[in-house]
Design goal:
It is a single chain. 19% of the residues lie in helices and 32% in strands. The strands form two sheets. Strands 1, 2, 3, 4, 14, 17, 18, 19, 20, 21 and 22 form an eleven-stranded mixed β-sheet that branches. Strands 5, 6, 7, 8, 9, 10, 11, 12, 13, 15 and 16 form an eleven-stranded antiparallel β-sheet that branches.
Length: 478
């Protein structure tokens, strides 16, 4: 058996590295037998549970099995090299495999309607009057100037604060100055006086980029108006919704994954999550579950070392994604270095995701992209490939991503830190139809002599269909 599957009991870890030869087969794309294979049902055990190759092997083994009452963590370790060591792969990964049966479902696009816009305006904007909006041309110069004055006051407080060391002060002031510079640049395009607000309804109008929808604002008592947008594209599958109500021209971005309170915020994690879930309920959203929670801050505050400082604006960011029969979908980004130049991808239908942003003032951000509706569970207990076979496919196919044999790459190291099964919204090849299918993703980091994924989060380097073993290109959607 090539793979090394390790059960870690408390602090015990066993590492067995192995070196493998260069694979000889090319990347497997979507196989023609998928339609047939998704009809195969996994065989149940005598007690009614699904029998997998791993559980069958464990039951037939004479070796002692770990006590189920002990704390367990599933790990996988391996090491192999290609091209005389130029390209190495190190696997020291937590294996995240859901319990129970795995399903395959049919899913169809859902396009936002004017009724959805009505509800969103009521829930997110407090049912306040809405007005036509374009930024920054429909913002008065005085609005920018007022915000600049506010930020300059914060800088003055930082300079006089004797509890902060000089390095932290310099970093904070530099971030605030970047913020101010952005405001000054935008103010050159702003109107001298506040333009008259033109009240509108939620009736969709033609927008740019072959879409209909609306882009509106409402006065919520802050320096900037709250902004709400819906776009429904002519491709028949893409629609997006977004709302923002904060006093920054920058976007809140997740910096650290969290599961508890954020230091320096009055709002607790529990309170923020409760508000997020209440918002989903009022928006009529069901079937999506919390995937990750993050500490967020504005993009100008990128230095992690100052995140706990009281002068850094902070928020909770909650990411919700669909789940199918208890298994979550997962939207991963692909490594930018893996993307080939001069390749034109068709417009895909990315995975559905809702992002909710909450600070001490309440809900300040909401976005919902690419919604879909599950119309049929094709197989509630589909037969999937064993983990051994998945790892064999990974080892065979990872080399053929092609990047590490590019010119000027003399050193390439891929580190896999997590191996996770989730549901992926798969486009049937040559058909405008979609399925939720189980896949394995290999998440980690990659570095070469001239590239690193250090600034990229949740990068999946290979996605393998758990039903038929084909390699899925997330940039293509199949």
């Amino acid at each position: 058996m090539k793979r090394i599957l390790i059960i870690v009991i408390i602090m015990l870890m066993l590492a067995l590295p192995a070196c493998q030869p260069t694979p000889e087969e090319q990347v497997i794309t979507q196989k023609d037998d998928l339609e047939e294979m998704i009809q195969n049902t996994a065989a149940p055990t005598d007690n009614g549970e699904t029998q997998t190759p791993e559980t069958e092997e464990a039951e037939n083994s004479d070796e002692p099995q770990p006590d189920e009452t002990e704390e367990l963590a599933l790990k996988y370790q391996d090491h192999f090299e290609f091209q005389d060591g130029t390209f190495t792969v190190d696997i020291d990964a937590v294996v995240d495999e859901p319990d129970g049966s795995v399903s395959v479902a049919k899913v169809e696009p859902y396009l936002f309607t004017e009724k959805d816009a009505d509800r969103a305006v009521e829930v997110l904007m407090g049912n306040k009057p809405i007005y036509e909006y374009e930024f920054p041309t429909m913002t008065a110069k005085a609005t920018f100037q007022n915000k600049i004055i506010q930020l300059e006051s914060v800088i003055a407080n930082i300079k006089s604060d004797t509890t902060i060391d000089e390095n932290t002060k310099s970093s904070l002031i530099a971030s605030y100055n970047t913020w101010i510079m952005g405001l000054e640049n935008l103010s050159t395009k702003a109107a001298l006086d506040l333009p008259e607000w033109n009240q509108v309804t939620t009736e969709f109008v033609d927008r740019r980029n072959k879409a209909v929808g609306l882009h509106v604002k409402a006065d919520t008592g802050k320096i900037w108006p709250a902004i709400f947008s819906i776009l429904v594209y002519s491709d028949g599958k893409t629609s997006t919704m977004s709302f923002g109500d904060d006093d920054s021209i920058f976007v809140y971005e997740g910096v650290l994954e969290i599961d508890g309170d954020i230091k320096g915020m009055e709002t607790t994690f529990t309170q923020a999550l409760s508000l997020a879930e209440e918002t989903l309920e009022m928006m009529g959203i069901n079937g999506l579950v919390l995937n990750t929670a993050e500490l967020g801050t504005f993009t100008v505050f990128r230095d992690v070392e100052i995140l706990e400082n009281k002068y850094v604006p902070k928020c909770y960011i909650f990411n919700f994604e669909p789940q199918i029969n208890g298994i979550r979908t997962q939207v991963y980004q692909t490594c930018k270095g893996f993307e080939k130049d001069n390749v034109e991808y068709e417009a895909i239908w990315p995975g559905e995701k809702i992002r909710i942003v909450i600070d001490d003032s309440g809900l300040i951000g909401y976005s919902h992209g690419y919604p879909g509706v599950v119309t049929e569970i094709i197989n509630e207990n589909v037969e999937v490939l064993g983990f051994d076979e998945i790892m064999d496919i990974f080892e065979q196919q990872i080399f053929y991503k092609g990047v590490w044999i590019a010119p000027n790459v003399s050193y390439s190291k891929l580190t896999i830190e997590r191996i996770k099964m989730s549901m992926f919204r798969l486009k049937k090849k040559d058909k405008d139809e979609y399925l939720y299918v189980p896949v394995w993703d290999f998440i980690g980091s990659w570095e070469t002599n001239n590239y690193s994924t250090e600034e990229e989060k949740e990068v999946s380097f290979l996605t393998i269909n758990a039903v038929n073993g084909s390699v899925i290109d997330r940039n293509l959607g199949y």
